[in-house]
């Protein structure tokens, strides 16, 4: 079973005790274990109709004509809607989160296999699907652009001819760092290592697919929309803009969500179709995509073709890192990233190392594939950045003949250098890397593993040990730097204490399994002394929560968690004034301790927060100028991101006869600052590590030369089961964030970011006897077999 | 067509289409939404229910095929207000996060314990290997099932007047949590 190692000597003062009630059970679990969770597909409304979407069978084609007459005559059908009909309502196109546009239903062309072409609304799911078969679409097939490397070739078919004046498939260029300074360092370096590194397209594939129930009331003009969204408030604003329904008439409800991982950040055409379906029929309409629809049409992740270069001295001092990236964004730029960051936070590719120069140049292109780009717990492209740097550092270790742990330890940013500004302009808030790395090595028994490996190699057995050390940037804003379509990345929080001393806290972020109902109650409990059981957490309903940007990029704890702590302190400040009146002493003479104000020097004289709550709502007098009630609201605009870090060590065995990789052990030491609920943190880490095994060894959304998606079901897109993953060995260090009110950092994506390079580094290490320095994911047996025989090919 | 089956000990009769899947019959016709729908291809296992005591994937069973048989879903796992030890184990050991795969996982786990009351970690992993969880990384699910096994064994032992404390740690939310230095 998993061992949890603690290093008390690395703790800072405020981490001696966990926040709130530490390792407590989740408040949401009693409903889930009884099958009483309420997901979107569980919503049943009187008279509700069902919507199904007709999708393009081809990757690139002009639509010549659509005949819906047979579908309209099909039993149970209430409406059939095409792009041409939406165009009349000015609803055929919608903005994406990256300021591009995306077709709700195709009007002129289809641009990827699985694109939405028409929809049917019928009395039940089966009738709707039957009618799809009866829609006759005539396509004029066009050559597709499948290989991103060829997208900008002269004569390549132009995918986005809907954009005025567009004559190629160029999406955007982006650069960061100092090109000239980096070139100068490379020119004088002893050692330069270059490697082509591909992060193939993968998919988050949450267990619950995407869907919505739209209920438009034509009499009062109100729209209620239950939907699988990680950002209900941002979605509401965008629906107001797209559909023209006034924002105060829209209620977006994200009930229980069956996993998100970034897949539920964008607005998908299906949500808009459900709204239109309800407006057209005057009935509630449910749309729930099936698994194939989820895999072929919703937000994918990665698809970065990278060249990494690293410059160093002969004795292992890393001097500079340079990278050139070709990014495949699919048919529409649907990336969910802050507007000023078209490549997300890829700029942290300098990793955890103190270097002299860095430079990145990126070109993004359109291809005939599904849109998306930022998803699968990637922390806004940090997954790609960390994979690049941790892979290229291992390549350097190989070139220098140095142990990869030693090379990393030699180049870490030192604790006294924080806050540390990287060569690409990111200000790392805090970090103490060496203890984290040392703890992972101690837990792994690193020296002993290397001895075992040597013995096995002598016997012809293939064992590999892989290391990855990551620094993440999570918790977007501040709002002046980060926005989504003009909406600043900040989050509101409201706290009300009821007369009997129970409380409700309302969040702008939304849980997809992260346990917000528990951890946010714990944060508030720590600040205001009301037990977590007495604090109800409301989230995922725009009518009942303050505005904010939502849950993705590990931003709930860094942003909304800070808001929860600060709103509780605001309530506590008011409670102090009321207490001073109750105890007839000045405010300065009161001390706060775990749920009560005590008179300094007379600890017997005190009032609890519950006493104060009753007084705040009661008939007695309150101090001069104090309004009744005990509640507060704030909007928290973070001053910086938080920068969690971690050291991961993976041990693999490779079968020399079949090339099958087995992950024997995985040691993960995470430092996410102050830890609120260690049980939940460990759960988040475990899940991310499993994602890493999937991406490193199994998962890939591939396409054939015609643009057909080859990962369109769970029979083709392989996700780890309990048999492909080991038991996890987790540990932690604690380096609080200096700017977060309770010192916490995000953790939700750390393991997804950090584990793929550790696993690939381990496999490459195992294949060292074959002279392998790099092999691309997914490291399936056939790809490992090829690598062993010296003809490894990139996966795309 | 007309179909009659017993669902969670209650006999139900409904008029259905012959092609209706059992998962849709349970969810849409009977309103038992604890059973989920995840992949259509028998890969994810979020739709697992029991058919005559055996776990089956209800997305690939026709409702008509369940006619005359006994079906049990997650709603039929607890005995009234008393949770099954498997349900308690999942809560105690953080065996769930988003909760979507959980009903299917618990149904498989209960069936495993019914035929093997003391499964090893490897046996538990094998038993749930036809099901996918995207959140937990499986280790806590394995622990949850072990928790249930140990507690059932202890409960049985107590019936024979042996008092042995549980071998697996427990967190009590009512008081100060175990393991908290606060």
UniProtKB/TrEMBL annotation, chain A:
Pfam families: Ald_Xan_dh_C, MoCoBD_1, MoCoBD_2. It comes from the Bacteria. Keywords: Molybdenum, Oxidoreductase. SUPFAM superfamilies: CO dehydrogenase molybdoprotein N-domain-like (SSF54665), Molybdenum cofactor-binding domain (SSF56003). GO terms for molecular function: anaerobic carbon-monoxide dehydrogenase activity; copper ion binding; iron ion binding; molybdenum ion binding. Its cofactor is Mo-molybdopterin cytosine dinucleotide. InterPro entries: Ald_Oxase/Xan_DH_a/b, Ald_Oxase/Xan_DH_a/b_sf, Ald_Oxase/xanthine_DH-like, AldOxase/xan_DH_MoCoBD1, AldOxase/xan_DH_MoCoBD2, AldOxase/xan_DH_Mopterin-bd_sf, CO_Mo_DH_lsu. Residues 34-143 form the Aldehyde oxidase/xanthine dehydrogenase a/b hammerhead domain. NCBIfam families: CO_dehy_Mo_lg (TIGR02416). PANTHER family: ALDEHYDE OXIDASE 1-RELATED, XANTHINE DEHYDROGENASE. This is Carbon-monoxide dehydrogenase large subunit.
Automatic annotation (TrEMBL), chain B:
GO terms for molecular function: 2 iron, 2 sulfur cluster binding; metal ion binding; oxidoreductase activity. It comes from the Bacteria. Keywords: 2Fe-2S, Iron, Iron-sulfur, Metal-binding, Oxidoreductase. SUPFAM superfamilies: 2Fe-2S ferredoxin-like (SSF54292), CO dehydrogenase ISP C-domain like (SSF47741). Gene3D superfamilies: 3.10.20.30, [2Fe-2S]-binding domain. PROSITE patterns: 2FE2S_FER_2 (PS51085). Residues 160-182 are annotated as: Disordered. Residues 1-77 form the 2Fe-2S ferredoxin-type domain. Pfam families: Fer2 (PF00111), Fer2_2 (PF01799). This is Carbon-monoxide dehydrogenase small subunit.
């Amino acid at each position: 079973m998993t061992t949890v190692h603690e290093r008390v000597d690395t703790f800072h003062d405020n981490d001696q005790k966990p926040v709130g009630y530490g390792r407590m059970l989740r408040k949401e679990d009693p409903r889930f274990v009884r099958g009483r969770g309420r997901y979107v597909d569980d919503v049943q409304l009187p008279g509700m109709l069902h919507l199904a979407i007709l999708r393009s069978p081809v990757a690139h084609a002009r639509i010549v004509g659509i005949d819906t007459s047979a579908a309209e005559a099909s039993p149970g059908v209430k409406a059939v809607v095409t792009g041409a009909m939406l165009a009349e309502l000015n609803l055929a196109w919608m903005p994406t989160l990256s300021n591009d546009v995306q077709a709700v239903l195709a009007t002129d062309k289809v641009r990827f296999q699985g694109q939405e072409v028409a929809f049917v609304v019928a009395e039940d799911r089966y009738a709707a699907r039957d009618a799809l078969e009866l829609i006759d679409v005539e396509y004029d097939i066009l050559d597709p652009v499948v290989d991103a490397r060829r997208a900008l070739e002269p004569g390549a078919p132009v995918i986005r001819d809907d954009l005025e004046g567009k004559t190629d498939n160029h999406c955007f260029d982006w650069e960061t760092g100092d090109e000239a300074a980096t070139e100068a360092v490379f020119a004088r370096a002893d050692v330069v290592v270059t490697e082509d590194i591909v992060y193939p397209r993968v998919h988050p594939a949450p267990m619950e697919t995407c869907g919505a129930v739209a209920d438009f009331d034509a009499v009062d003009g109100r729209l209620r929309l239950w939907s699988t969204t990680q950002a209900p408030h941002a979605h509401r604003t965008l629906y107001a803009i797209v559909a023209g329904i006034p924002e105060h008439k829209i209620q977006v409800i994200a009930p229980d969500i069956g996993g998100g991982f970034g897949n539920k950040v964008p607005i998908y055409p299906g949500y808009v179709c459900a709204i239109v379906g309800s407006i057209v029929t005057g009935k509630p309409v449910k749309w729930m995509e099936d698994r194939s629809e989820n895999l072929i049409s919703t937000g994918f992740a990665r698809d970065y073709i990278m060249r990494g270069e690293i410059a160093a001295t002969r004795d292992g001092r890393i001097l500079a890192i340079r990278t050139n990236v070709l990014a495949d964004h699919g048919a529409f730029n649907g990336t969910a990233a802050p507007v000023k960051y078209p490549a997300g936070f890829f700029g942290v590719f300098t990793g955890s190392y103190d270097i002299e120069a860095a430079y990145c140049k990126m070109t993004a292109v359109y291809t005939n594939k599904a849109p998306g780009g930022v998803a699968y717990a990637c922390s806004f492209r940090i997954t790609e950045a960390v994979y690049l740097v941790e892979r290229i550092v291992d390549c350097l270790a190989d070139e220098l003949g140095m142990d990869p742990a030693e090379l990393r330890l030699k180049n870490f940013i030192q604790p006294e250098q924080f806050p540390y500004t990287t060569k690409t302009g990111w200000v790392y808030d805090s970090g103490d890397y060496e203890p984290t790395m040392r703890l992972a090595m101690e837990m792994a028994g690193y020296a002993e593993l290397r001895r075992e490996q040597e013995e096995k190699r002598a016997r012809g057995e293939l064992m590999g040990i892989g290391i990855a050390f990551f620094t993440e940037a999570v918790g977007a804003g501040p709002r002046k730097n980060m926005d989504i379509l003009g909406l600043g990345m900040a989050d509101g929080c409201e706290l009300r204490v009821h007369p009997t001393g129970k409380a409700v806290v309302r969040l702008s972020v939304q849980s997809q399994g992260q346990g917000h109902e528990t951890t946010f109650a714990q944060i508030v409990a720590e600040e205001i002394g009301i037990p977590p059981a007495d604090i109800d957490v409301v989230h995922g309903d725009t009518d009942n929560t303050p505005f904010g940007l939502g849950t993705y990029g590990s931003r709930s704890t860094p942003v909304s968690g800070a808001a929860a702590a600060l709103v509780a302190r605001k309530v506590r400040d008011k409670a102090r004034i009321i207490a001073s009146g109750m105890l007839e002493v000045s405010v300065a003479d009161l001390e706060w301790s775990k749920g009560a104000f005590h008179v300094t020097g007379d600890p017997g004289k005190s009032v609890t927060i519950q006493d104060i709550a009753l007084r705040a709502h009661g008939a007695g007098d309150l101090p001069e100028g104090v309004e009744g009630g005990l509640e507060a609201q704030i909007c928290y605009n973070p001053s910086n991101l938080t920068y969690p870090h971690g050291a991961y060590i993976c041990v693999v065995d490779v079968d020399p006869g079949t090339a099958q990789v087995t992950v024997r052990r995985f040691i993960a030491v995470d430092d996410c600052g102050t830890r609120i609920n260690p049980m939940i943190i460990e759960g988040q880490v475990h899940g991310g590590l499993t994602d890493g095994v999937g991406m490193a060894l199994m998962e890939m959304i591939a396409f054939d030369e015609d643009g057909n998606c080859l990962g369109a079901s769970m029979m083709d897109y392989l996700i780890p089961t309990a048999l492909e993953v080991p038991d996890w060995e987790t540990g932690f260090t604690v380096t609080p964030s200096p700017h977060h009110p309770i010192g916490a950092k995000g953790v939700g994506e750390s393991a997804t970011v950090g584990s793929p390079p550790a696993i690939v580094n381990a496999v490459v290490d195992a294949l060292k006897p074959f002279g392998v320095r790099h092999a691309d994911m997914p490291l399936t047996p056939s790809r490992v077999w090829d690598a062993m025989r010296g003809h490894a090919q990139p996966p795309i | 067509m007309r179909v009659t089956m017993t669902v969670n000990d209650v006999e139900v009769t409904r008029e259905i289409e012959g092609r209706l899947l059992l998962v849709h019959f349970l969810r849409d016709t009977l309103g038992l939404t604890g059973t989920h729908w995840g992949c259509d291809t028998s890969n994810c296992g979020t739709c697992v229910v029991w058919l005559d005591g055996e776990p089956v994937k209800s997305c690939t069973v026709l409702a008509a095929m369940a006619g005359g048989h006994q079906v049990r879903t997650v709603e039929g796992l607890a005995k009234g207000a008393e949770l099954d030890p498997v349900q308690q184990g999942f809560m105690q050991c953080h065996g769930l996060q988003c909760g979507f795969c959980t009903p299917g996982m618990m149904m498989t786990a209960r069936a495993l314990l019914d035929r093997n009351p003391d499964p090893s970690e490897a046996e538990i992993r094998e038993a749930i290997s036809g099901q996918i969880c995207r959140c937990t990384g499986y280790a806590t699910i394995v622990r949850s099932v072990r928790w249930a096994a140990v507690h059932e064994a202890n409960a049985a032992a107590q019936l024979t007047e042996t008092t042995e404390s549980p071998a697996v740690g427990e967190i009590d939310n009512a008081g100060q949590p175990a393991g908290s230095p606060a």
